[in-house]
C-alpha cells in the first residue's frame, strides 16, 4: 500500500495512503467475488489486475477526495428557486461584490467618515427601507431567523395571535407554531383551517396580546370554501388595540411590474398597510443571497436590533455584500429584470427559450443523441407560486439503452454535474434555468454520459 501511495506523485502523504488503501480494498473485493464492489471503472472490473490500473484507480480516488464537496452544478430542471441546488444564482454585480470583500479587509463595521465603530446594517438598512417604503430595515441570516427575531423581540412572555389557516410548515422544518414557541411567546389560534374572519381576530385581541402574526402559505394553496383576512383590515384592527402586526410574506414580491409575481404578496403593500414588521427571504424571488429581511416601523425594527438574538442570527459579510449589490439593482426595475437571474428566468421570452431548446436539440443530434423539443411546464420552486406553471419549450433527450435512471446518475456524477427533469421516460433539459454556457455544458454532459 505504501508502495502504491508512493506512486501518486504530487498527492500529499495522508490522502495518498487513503486512496491507495481504498483502491486495494476495491480490488480485493472484486477478486474475492464481492458483488457490492461498487466500481463502474472497467479497468478495475477486470480480474486481471495490472499495476497501472491500480495506480490509475488510486489516482482517480485521490483526485476525487481532493475535489471540493460543494461545487457548481448545471440546473436543467426548470425549477428556478431550487433549494437543493442553492436557490438563487446571484447577479454578476453581486458576485463581484462578494469577490471584492472576500479576500480583503472591509469597512464591515467601521464608519469611514467618522472613523468610529459602525454597524454592518448600515450598508443595507437604508436600501431595504427605500425599496419597501418602510421607516427602517434590518437584515439577518435568513427569513426563518427574521420571523423568530420579530416574534421574540415583540412578544416574548406574552401572546401572539395567528389564524389556524396559517399554522403552516414551509419545509426544512420551519413550522409557524414551533417558531412562535421558540420565541417565548404563547400561541393563540383563531378561526379555522379554511376560514378566518376579522371578528375571530377581534375576539382574541386582549391585554396579553403582544402581536398578530400573519404567515403566507408559500408552498401550497387551499381552494373552495376558504377565507383569510387581508393585510389592510387586519392592520387596522390591530392598530385599534395598539397591537403590532408581523407579516411573514416568505418570498414576497419586491420587483415591480412583473406579472408572474402577481400571486406573491407585495412587500410594499404590507408595509403600506401598517405592518410593524414584514419578513422576507433574500434568496427566493428576491434573487439574492441567503438572508432574512425585515422592513417595518422604526420602533419595531429597533426592538429587533437590540434583542440578544440579533447577534446570534446576524448575517455574514459575504452575504451582506451580495445583498447590497442585489438590492441596488432594484433601484432600476429594468436593470433588476435584466441582471437578476431569478427575475430574468421568470420573465424569459418564449422565443429565447425556444431557440435555446432548439440549439441543444441540434447539438445533441449532431453528436448522435436522439432528442426532440417538446412543451413542458416548469416551476418557480423554493416554496413560492405553487400554482404558477411556467409553460415553455424543453429539450427532451432519449436515454436509449442506458435508461433514464442510469443516465441521470451518470449526469450527477460527471465532472460538471447536470441535474435534469424526468418525464415520460425522457430526460428534460429545460432552457429556462440554463444560459448559453450552461446549456452547452448540459449537452456535453449528456453526450459524455451516453458514451460512457
Ligand atoms: C421560505 C419561507 C420562510 C423561510 O425562509 P428562509 O429564508 O428559507 O429561512 C419563512 N416563511 C415563509 C412564509 C417562507 O415562505
TL;DR of this structure?
This protein is of the alpha/beta class and 452 residues long.
Describe the 3D structure.
This protein is an alpha/beta fold and 452 residues long. It has 3 domains: 65 residues, no CATH class; 118 residues, Aspartate Aminotransferase, domain 1; 248 residues, Aspartate Aminotransferase, domain 2 (3-Layer(aba) Sandwich). Helix 2 crosses helix 4 and helix 5 packs antiparallel against helix 14. It is globular. The chain binds pyridoxal-5'-phosphate (PLP). Pyridoxal-5'-phosphate binds next to helix 7 and strand 9.
Please state the average pLDDT score. 94
CATH topology of the largest domain: Aspartate Aminotransferase, domain 2
Largest sheet: 7 strands, mixed
What is the CA–CA distance across the termini? 29 Å
Radius of gyration: 26 Å
Helix content: 40-55%
CATH architecture verdict of the largest domain? 3-Layer(aba) Sandwich
CATH class category label of the largest domain: Alpha Beta
Total beta strands: 16
**Which stretches are low in confidence, meaning pLDDT under 50 for 5 or more residues running?**
none
Provide the CATH superfamily of the largest domain. Answer: Type I PLP-dependent aspartate aminotransferase-like (Major domain)
Overall number of structural domains: 3
Based on Cα principal axes, name the global outline. Answer: globular
Number of helices: 19
- The proportion of residues in beta strands is 15-25%
What strand line-up does the widest sheet have? Answer: 5-11-10-9-8-6-7
Q: Structural class, from helix and strand content?
A: alpha/beta
The molecules bound to the chains, other than polymers, are: pyridoxal-5'-phosphate
Amino acid at each position: 500500500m505504501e508502495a502504491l501511495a508512493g506512486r501518486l506523485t504530487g498527492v500529499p502523504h495522508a490522502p495518498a495512503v487513503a486512496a491507495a488503501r481504498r483502491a486495494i480494498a476495491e480490488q480485493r473485493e472484486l477478486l474475492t467475488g464481492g458483488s457490492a464492489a461498487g466500481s463502474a471503472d472497467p479497468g478495475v472490473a477486470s480480474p486481471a489486475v495490472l499495476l497501472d490500473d491500480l495506480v490509475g484507480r488510486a489516482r482517480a480516488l485521490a483526485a476525487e477526495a481532493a475535489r471540493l464537496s460543494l461545487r457548481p452544478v448545471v440546473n436543467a430542471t426548470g425549477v428556478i428557486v431550487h433549494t437543493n441546488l442553492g436557490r438563487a444564482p446571484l447577479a454578476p454585480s453581486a458576485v463581484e461584490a462578494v469577490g471584492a470583500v472576500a479576500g480583503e479587509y472591509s469597512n464591515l463595521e467601521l464608519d469611514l467618515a467618522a472613523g468610529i465603530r459602525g454597524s454592518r446594517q448600515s450598508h443595507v438598512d437604508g436600501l431595504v427601507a427605500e425599496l419597501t417604503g418602510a421607516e427602517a430595515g434590518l437584515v439577518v441570516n435568513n427569513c426563518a431567523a427574521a420571523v423568530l427575531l420579530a416574534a421574540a423581540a415583540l412578544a416574548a412572555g406574552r401572546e401572539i395571535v395567528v389564524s389556524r389557516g396559517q399554522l403552516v410548515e414551509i419545509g426544512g422544518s420551519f413550522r409557524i407554531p414551533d417558531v412562535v414557541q421558540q420565541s417565548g411567546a404563547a400561541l393563540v389560534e383563531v378561526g379555522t383551517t379554511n376560514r378566518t374572519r376579522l371578528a375571530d381576530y377581534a375576539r382574541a385581541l386582549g391585554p396579553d396580546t403582544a402581536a398578530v402574526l400573519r404567515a403566507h402559505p408559500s408552498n401550497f394553496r387551499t381552494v373552495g370554501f376558504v377565507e383569510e383576512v387581508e393585510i389592510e383590515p387586519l392592520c387596522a384592527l390591530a392598530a385599534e388595540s395598539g397591537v403590532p402586526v408581523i407579516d411573514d410574506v416568505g418570498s414576497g414580491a419586491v420587483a415591480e411590474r412583473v406579472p408572474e409575481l402577481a400571486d406573491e404578496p407585495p412587500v410594499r403593500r404590507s408595509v403600506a398597510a401598517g405592518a410593524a414588521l414584514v419578513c422576507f427571504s433574500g434568496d427566493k424571488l428576491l434573487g439574492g443571497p441567503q438572508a432574512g429581511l425585515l422592513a417595518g416601523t422604526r420602533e419595531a425594527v429597533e426592538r429587533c436590533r437590540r434583542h440578544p438574538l440579533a447577534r446570534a442570527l446576524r448575517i455574514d459579510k459575504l452575504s451582506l455584500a451580495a445583498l447590497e449589490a442585489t438590492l441596488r439593482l432594484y433601484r432600476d426595475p429594468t436593470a433588476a429584470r435584466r441582471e437578476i437571474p431569478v427575475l430574468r428566468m421568470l420573465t424569459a421570452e418564449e422565443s429565447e427559450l425556444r431557440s435555446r431548446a432548439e440549439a441543444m436539440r441540434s447539438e445533441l443530434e449532431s453528436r448522435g443523441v436522439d432528442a426532440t423539443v417538446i412543451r413542458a411546464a416548469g416551476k418557480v420552486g423554493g416554496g413560492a407560486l405553487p400554482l404558477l406553471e411556467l409553460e415553455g419549450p424543453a429539450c427532451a433527450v432519449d436515454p436509449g439503452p442506458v435508461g433514464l435512471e442510469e443516465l441521470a446518475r451518470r449526469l450527477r456524477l460527471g465532472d460538471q454535474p447536470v441535474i435534469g427533469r424526468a418525464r415520460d421516460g425522457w430526460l428534460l433539459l429545460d432552457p429556462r434555468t440554463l444560459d448559453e454556457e450552461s446549456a452547452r455544458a448540459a449537452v456535453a454532459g449528456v453526450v459524455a454520459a451516453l458514451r460512457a
